[in-house]
Design a protein that fits this description.
The structure is a homodimer. By secondary structure, chain A is α/β, with parallel strands linked by helices. Chain A is 42% helix and 20% strand. The first copy, chain A, is built from 14 helices and 16 strands. In chain A, the strands form four sheets. A seven-stranded parallel sheet of chain A has the order 10-9-11-8-7-12-13. The first copy, chain A, has a four-stranded parallel sheet with strand order 5-4-3-6, sandwiched between helices. A three-stranded antiparallel sheet of chain A has the order 1-2-16, with no helix packed on it. In chain A, strand 3, helix 6 and strand 4 form a beta-alpha-beta unit. In chain A, helix 1 crosses helix 8, helix 2 packs antiparallel against helix 5 and helix 5 packs parallel to helix 6. Chain A starts with 5 loop residues before the first helix and ends with a strand. Chains A and B meet through helix 10, helix 14, strand 13 and strand 16 of A and helix 10, helix 14, strand 13 and strand 16 of B. Strand 16 of chain A pairs parallel with strand 13 of chain B.
Chain lengths: 420, 420
């Protein structure tokens, strides 16, 4: 047997304690879980000074290490942001609790089978340097009767430690085990690797972050994983499209927030409308200085464009860059999408019922849009009230994941001595 | 890049073809899918001579290789058995089709979100030398709009090849691609390993078989996996139990079919009733010559018993062997179950509402029984009409898996130009 390293043992202890604490916690009433979440919000506000001081340490270190501006912004807490995080906590408390609900059937032999939602047990999350995720993820897991083990980005380690210390106070004040929230303050790669190996204690691991992290987790994890967030999304402008609508949707899908996974990376347009549409679109996108990487036909229409490489079609830029292709038919558009989609969100603008139906049936993605922007793929926009991530895999949950994704099935069977 | 072996390329070709065929097939109407399944049943009966001849080759080889009697029996086909397999196929055709059904919501901005069930795409199954599974699994996958890749036990390779050839005829006669059913006739371990690596083409892999196979798949697979079938199941006889009922349930759960995963391996009994209950149970089980492996207290009551080793409590015997323990309380029973359960099926016999509720809430298993035998954990007994396996994992599906387990989520969003 291999010798376990200190980091491995540290992670194992946190996961074991969380899993053990989850057993008693899973049966907690909805009222008590909601009261806990509200206490957590109050406690976080009471600890605002400690939390902001810890956050300042992270910001100082980040500045020293030349962390990019966008990351600095996500890392920064102030009283208003913390207050917003606490409001979100209270909103989770107000959501309906899925645990225990389900369907009841009676079998011919008199057995009563209740198919109910049950907590998963211990949920682990690896995420980036975003203090708000520390609180959001803990809230969603606790709401659904789960323990949580958090491993955030190293740039936010002091903020995370302070936030978790405050939430643990609320756990203890409500008579629960502080181990229900595990926090891995050891941010070496070895800590993440140990977490991926905790089959005895971790019921599911959700990586939230860049491509590299997600690939590493999928390749190496021995615990069950839900993949999230890869979004190479397309918009196809059909020959029957309302071109004004298509411009509006394209601008929104590309330019409203290019850094997120539900923004589009590629625009495909039918050859019959490309000469009219592309200049309209370019004019509308002019103020964002969008860079176009085009196939030959699109290059001929958009004079400022660069030719797209093979790799461009396969890249999630998360930036003001758009690959543009002209296609001969909806079939060619669907074939292109089938080849390059990450299965996140795909859209068509069309006035043809036939083409809308073909797109819906044959495009294999979590969310398929007809005449709307891909930017709506989001738990809040879908009406789930909260979101733990957007699944781009097919098993368990696909698309935006709300509270239901944090539950499993349980069959409760009652009899009066039935045998088979 | 590593050189791909011939076996790898062979498996890759089958999986790629199945995945490609699945794209067009996924949108097939329920009526056409049902007609296909009925044609398959007719075709199999028309090919009965070829199929039984192929089966005889398997049986001859098995006899030569000294394959155990029980496996020989599962391997054997005759006209009556084939007719039963075809009846099951027609029953699958008659089941409701989950694909396309779902919930519709309208968002405040007018977006219509339809959350529907969609095919997974390409489903791979590794299973034992059981010809009936070749047809059952294909039927369930095709019913739900999926392609299937089958890799059965090597002892049944001729039977499987003949059954698949017949089913492919029915596919072609109905205007579908024969690639919708892939059959891996290469039964080396390398074939299974290649299948576990097909992330591009295989959407889910279900191993059905012994512990060794399932562990190998879970440890090595890079494709998504659903674990099935591990069943270290317990029955706890509470101090308030109706002892006659408890005997009836224990006998059924242990002796009616010990080779299956929903049979019990361990009986726990409260110390207050153990002296009365255990002799009653032993008398009722006498005709099966059940071997008892007991803790100290149970050994004192059952004079013929052997002491149980640590390993015994952790073993799924699938045989007429029962570990027996005497516990001081329901808490001790739940703690024991928590330590050793594989999360399949657990039962209590009790007259106490309080104890029934504690057992239901705190035992973490797919199926939790109060006053009934664990033997009911089965898709047919649960009213699902068919079963592709019994999941002992928490993600995606847990417990008996019917047609729903072969589907994924898809969100269809219709707008009239909404942007965010």
């Amino acid at each position: 047997m291999e010798q376990k390293t200190d980091i491995y043992l540290y992670v194992e202890n946190i996961c074991r304690a969380a899993k053990e604490a989850s057993r008693a916690y899973g049966a907690t009433s909805t009222a008590k879980k909601n009261a806990l979440l509200c206490t957590m919000a109050d406690q976080l506000m009471a600890d605002v000074a400690d939390i902001l001081a810890a956050n300042q340490r992270d910001l100082d270190a980040a500045e020293e290490n030349g962390v990019p501006k966008a990351m600095m912004d996500r890392l920064k807490l102030d009283e208003k942001r913390l207050s917003g995080i606490c409001d979100a906590l209270r909103e989770v408390a107000a959501l309906p609790d899925p645990i225990g609900s389900g369907e009841r059937t009676v079998r011919p032999n008199g057995l009563v089978i209740q198919h109910v939602r049950a907590p998963l047990g211990c949920v682990a999350i690896i995420y980036e340097a975003r203090p708000n995720v520390t609180v959001d993820a803990a809230a969603l897991c606790l709401k659904t009767g789960n323990a949580v083990v958090l491993r955030g980005g190293k740039e936010a380690v002091h903020s995370g430690t302070a936030l978790v210390a405050s939430m643990k106070k609320a756990l203890v004040d409500n008579g629960f085990s502080p181990d229900l929230i595990g926090f891995i303050a050891q941010t070496d790669r070895a800590g993440a690797n140990a977490l991926m190996d905790m089959r005895r204690y971790v019921d599911v691991l959700m990586p939230r972050g860049g491509k590299g992290l997600i690939r590493a987790v999928v390749e190496n994890a021995r615990v069950p994983v839900i993949e999230t967030g890869a979004g190479n999304c397309h918009l196809y402008v059909d020959e029957t499209a309302d071109l004004d609508m298509a411009v509006k949707v394209a601008v929104n899908a590309k330019c409203s927030r290019p850094s997120v996974c539900n923004a589009i990376e590629t625009l495909l347009v039918h050859k019959a409308v490309a000469p009219a549409f592309l200049p309209m679109m370019a004019e509308a996108m002019a103020k964002w200085n969008v860079e176009y990487r085009c196939d030959e036909a699109a290059c001929a229409i958009l004079p400022s464009a660069k030719p797209a490489s093979d790799e461009d079609w396969d890249t999630e830029y998360n930036d003001y860059i758009l690959t543009v292709g002209v296609v001969d038919s909806i079939d060619a558009a669907i074939d292109h999408i089938t080849r390059y989609t990450t299965g996140h969100s795909e859209a068509i603008v069309t006035r043809s019922i036939e083409n809308a139906n073909a797109f819906r049936a044959r495009v294999d993605a979590a969310a398929v849009y007809v005449n709307a922007s891909t930017r709506f793929t989001d738990g809040g926009e879908f009406g789930f009230g909260a979101e733990i991530g957007i699944s781009t895999q097919k098993l368990h949950a696909r698309g935006p994941m709300g509270l239901m994704a944090l539950t499993t099935d349980k069959y409760l069977i009652d009899g009066d001595g039935q045998v088979r």
